[in-house]
## 1
Amino acid sequence: MKKKVSWRSFLPPFCCGGLPAKAAKRVAAKQSSFTRLSMVDLSNPNSVLSEDLSVSLAGCNIHMFTLGEIKVMTQSFSTGNFLGEGGFGPVYKGFIDDKLRVGLKAQPVAVKLLDLDGSQGHREWLTEVIFLGQLRDPHLVKLIGYCCEDEHRVLVYEYMPRGSLENQLFRRFSVSLPWSTRMKIALGAAKGLAFLHGAAKPVIYRDFKASNILLDSDYNAKLSDFGLAKDGPDGDDTHVSTRVMGTEGYAAPEYVMTGHLTAMSDVYSFGVVLLELLTGRRSLEKNRPHREQNLVEFARSMLNDPRKLGRIMDSRLEGQYSEIGARKAAALAYQCLSQRPKQRPTMNEVVKILEPLKDYQDMPIGTFVFEMPESSPASKGSETPKEERKKVNDGGHQENGHHRGQNHHLRHPRSPNSLPENGVRNANRRPTSSVLHPRGGNGDRRP
């Protein structure tokens, strides 16, 4: 008979047990002058920090919930609260009321429950707690708390009503994201990466992709899923050598070839997402002709040619985008996707270039339709009940309302600022694996 093995049998004890009083005092004293912890701090068996995660993160304003409190939030993981499932495990919508815990405001939350048989494990859960527990920025999703009780590993986040960029950009039968919104999302995501790269202890995100960019109700972008994040190189080191993990189609070529990870690896991945925003196409699409399956290989050469750029721009935009802004964004994507890491811009430079693009106003006013009454042949000047609909295309520029006919009714094209009303939850993501591999038919993979 096969013996059941629990997480507790091979994990360090800091998650699930308390500290002796003397050890707790030593940790608290060490943490009184706060410096960000790294995974090395907690994986070192000789470090007192490895004895208790909750004490190690003292002062980070992260709550350690009990399993009972998690069940209250999710109504015992009710199927009515189920939002989706990814490589980490199932995700539920929950709600924290003001009676659950002193100091916690009432708010909706997203609760991720680690699947013990899934592709991710305790280390990814711990990495997420370490990074999001200590890093605070408007463009990183907020970790409210966690649960580490027996075999259970749970993460509790702020609720992101618009879901992921992947859902908003690629889902069928929905209103397309307007140009200004796409640039707003690109800018927010770029600021998130710039914050990570510029931290006192730089962080390399390593899994930047559309499904890991979450959107709030105003389409502000926030980075999520830090399970593959790594501390940047120390001292004179130029890179971090690590096992190749990530998502095919987004991972930088030099990282895939050598395992050498740098901040420029994130910049390349950002270029892929920016290209997806411009074209409305996924980074990998196996159902397309062979030469078009890899978006970067197919489209990169067209980004610096204004005559060819129009061919690859997302047709769902219906021409409602800034031509100047599109050229600048395409040139930026071209730089980010350079095969030579040193030729890519830093994320701070990316932010400066993107900052003005969402406000460009040189957007053509497309084809519009107006109705004009038809004169009656029987009596001059009179109108018949029947009106002829006439379609006018002025080459992309609307005149100042001066058209023939006494009465006309304009029917304007859909506003580029119209937004979908029903967001999709951030949790509805497809499962992925712990190593780099081609995405399946659904076009995604998970760490």
Note: The domain at 163-359 is CATH 1.10.510.10 (Transferase(Phosphotransferase); domain 1).
## 2
Amino acid sequence: MSIPFTSAFHHMPTPAFIAQIDSGEIVAANESLENLYLNVGAARQTTWQALMNDSESNLASIVHKVQRGEVERLSAKLEVGDRFITAEITLTELDDRHVLGYISHTEHLDFSVAENTLLKFALTESSAGIWMWEVEDDTISCSQSIASLLGSSLESTPHSSQAWRERIHKDDLPKMVRTVEEHINHKQRYYEAEYRIRRANDEFIWVRERGRTYSQGPQGEVLKIIGFIEDISPQKALEEHLRAQATFDELTGLLNRGAALTHFTKQLGLARRQYTPLTMAKIDLDARGLLADMPLEKRNTAIHTTARYIYKKIREADILARVAHDKLLLLLPNTSLKDAQKLINDFLLPREEEQKVLEFSDSSHLNLCVGLATFPEDGETIEELAQSANSAVEKGRTTGVSISIAE
């Protein structure tokens, strides 16, 4: 075949190859890949199956997974002469028949260098340190800055998931374990968790951990995860201070009815003085009655998960409160009815990964019903708006629609 940019391909420093998708035959290899084998006097593999050291590996099937976004980077053990090299293979389609693969090595990843390179993949400058977890071998590698965060030497940082979990506060451990297991079981790309971790001096600090799938197996299984943790103790201290200043719902962490009324009244006053639109949404978390027969603990978990999911979808200026066991009120300042409907549709149509999170907690976006009321058409006080929104949501429950507008 004719290879575009032939010279660039052959001289690129990263080992690379071109393979036929259907047959798996490697039809071209660049100098870096050829030299990898020539340097040890070994013959380069000529097929995808031989390269992967797996006679059952199907390149066409893997390319389909790449197209669907299920696989981004494959882990592989490349047989080079008498040794195996741990590597990652990234595939990019060239045309309908051919794929470009390039190979990167992480066997001897130097985190002291990685922390100052693109390997951070936009982890933000506030990150405390990078780690990599090889899931199958249960091996964790930490950067020096994680050692500093934990107040220990690099050699004393956790080198396995069990060692890491032994440092996590016992009250935070179950949720953390569930988050990571869900990430792996559902073959997700990202996860985020907050928990307390014990430093070398036995002091606990709050950290935020963000992980990203780095490489996968042929079936999309997660093989390596890379991410970072940062110290968020100051933010947590501020949250506790604010919690002492206001009243929050214990189950969901949202404002309760009394605290919400103060905020709602203030926003209504601004809308009245500035002649800006304002919309109120009454959200029924159990419009289809799916939670009614659940045990209390599971029902509470479903309510908590759905409420936090909605909270993450709204804007910073919006105000969300829990006003009954399975009811929320959402105030949307400076928002017309049309814009409110767009916002509500956003959380009524969750992305695939968001839907999996909801299902994991026995909750569902299909169980939601939202009633909308606008100021001043449907009420000139908070109480009137709330009543109009409540009437709308009751109408929606009866008619089986997800969004109902006050009449």
Note: The two ends are 66 Å apart (CA to CA).
## 3
Amino acid sequence: MAVPPPTVRPLQPPAGSRINFGAQIDGIDLENLTDQQFATVRDALYHHHVIVFKNQQKLSPKAQYELTKRFDPASDNYGHGKALDAKRSILHPDLKTIPHQPQVQVIGNGFVPSYEGLENVQLKHPHHRTFHKDHIPDDKDYDFTRFYRWHIDAALYDLYPPQVTTLFAVNVPKGRRQTLLYDDGTGETLDVPLGTTAFVSGQQMFDGLSPKDQEFVRTSKIEYAPHPYIWMSSARSNSTGLGLHPEGLELPESKLPPIDKEKIMILPMVWKNPVTGKLAMQVHPSAIRRIHLADGTVIDDLRRVREIIYKLQRPAISPQYVYPHDWENGDLVLFNNRGVLHSVVGAFKPDEVRLFRQCNLAASEPPVGS
């Protein structure tokens, strides 16, 4: 009996939304993925950027890793490499590695007695109070929330940004929604499911710029700080989760691990989609250090660098451009890490157990600019 071909259905944005990305794929057994089926998945990813597979409760860590690796067969190292070995890295508390599939990490919230070879694991969901300069009062914490940190999954030092990230929901607390606050004077808010992952399109971000700004980002490059997640460990984020306050709290190079100048990343501001050829503005705003202009000059003043990038990116994280995924147990979400930015969101109660698996691999080649 012939197996029906998979179906790709674009997500239907809610009223008032202007997102133009996201799709759901049905009819694929990810444990036994054929080359033809993978070609469908890859094509869908680069056209829709965020892909949802429902009811994948039986998906093994091995199959998740193999699917992730299939987008870049020459890649094998975790996207952040060994940066997590440094206790000062802001990423260190967030991840646990599955013993029998070390390329796959466990993230979430609450106590997990046993899972995939991990025992007595205490997971801690990142909370904006640990990273933002100011935060929502504790007595309002379960009703209101913020974007934690808008980012691209990438070490941004030595290793190239992953092509794709896969997120798998093992257990999702349900029953509450929160009001997300921008708290930046605009009055903007967004109704979100508890613990959503929020996505915005780098392509929409680029398309929304003026012709002058498009030319600027198309011809400029970003230099990222060395060991950026240690460098930024003392700094604090804007209330929108988009970049850092310019308070001079970043660690000096003398307090960072040894720096190899050859490993410092200078990447295009816009990255070209390998299938459609369209451009996406892909900048990790918290890790930026300098802007290299087309004429060879360099903007070195960190405050000015942040002001420029914030002004370019902020319109595209307004509520109408955000896709907050409403997680259900068994959801597998793939996202084009070179075409979207994303953020952790939400504040959980201690007994609300959230258990997810994450996989991304440092790419074998750098992103291509315009």
Note: The chain has one domain: 7-360.
## 4
Amino acid sequence: MATTTAVRPRALVRASGGPRYAVAVAVDALGTGMLRPFLLLYGVTVLGLSAPVAGTAMTAGAVAGLVCMPGVGRRLDRGERSTVVAASMLVRVLGVALLLATPDGDVWSFAAAALFLGVGNQAQPAAHAALVATVAHGRERDAALAAARAVRNAGMGAGALLATVCLAGGTTALRALALGTVLAYLAAAALAWSVHVHAGPAAAAAEDGHGGSAPGMRALIAANVVYVFCLNVPEVALPLVLVTQMHASPMWPAAVLVANTVLVITLQVPVTVALSRFSRRSVLAAAGVVLTASYAGFLAATSLGPGWGAPAVAAVAVVCTLGEIVYAGSATALVTALAPAHLLGRTLARFQLSTGLGLAASPAAITALAPHGPTALWGSLAAATLLSASAVARNPEPARP
């Protein structure tokens, strides 16, 4: 099995779709970072909606956005790549434009804007992975996918920081922030479309040699619903536990979130490259073991109570982030390696559907389990994740590049 033993920036940029596409990914992430964390505040502060109503509309929009995934998969399997990526960005332009046009108190227009944003947010990861799989192969493709995730986290972090500064300006600044997001998405869409990446579906089907789905894909997609809970641990579970149950300073969850972002940006590519000597499925199973260990660590840390409890949780969060990095570096890479070439788009769409379902379900599951105590929360997450890792490990990876 071929491995990638060094990180070469120029090769990564080329494998990621070229300089223009790399800039498009960064600009798109900047726009998402400016808007996504403050969409709820926009609904409450600018439009005058209640927080529960605005939150429900956002959740409904995100879940409804998953309905687009079968269509996205079919378009990708027709050979479209950069066009679908650009379309996912343009759909979000429509969403933000509708947000700007929403009258005060109009929850239905706000929900429609959230729907367009949800469609774009769900479609973009699958379309991006398909584009990278078209221009790069083998372990170079894995490193390129990891690099894009690092760039995306950096862009979203910078966008969120910019949005935080704008919050001091009140309603006018929030509207200006939304307008800036429109411009960012438009620029990203133009850059993505300009790379003109297209795959030949007929050639792909002929080269693949078989027409069915990859073995073990259903188990992998089911396991992903549980794995993806780790992405909401720093944003949902830890703030809930640290502030409302352990009565720690809000500084602790903020520090955990910053550390998580910095670690992903700096370690995503090196860790993915270092693990390229092992099979992708083994690495993904190992990610589940690391995440399980971190959940067990959170259970032990919360038992320490005030004083040492918060620092211990923050320390275990580093282990959880490492598990997230290993998971993110192997999951999509494994799917692209397993999927028959002519079914790549639909396979990635199904995988993104499982990701979206996991992300949508995890806040509700976490907030439902947390009141029943640390054992209910962290014990359940540990057991479910370990079971998922076992299911991943039981299916051997076929010999593919």
Note: Confidence is low (pLDDT under 50) at residues 206-210.
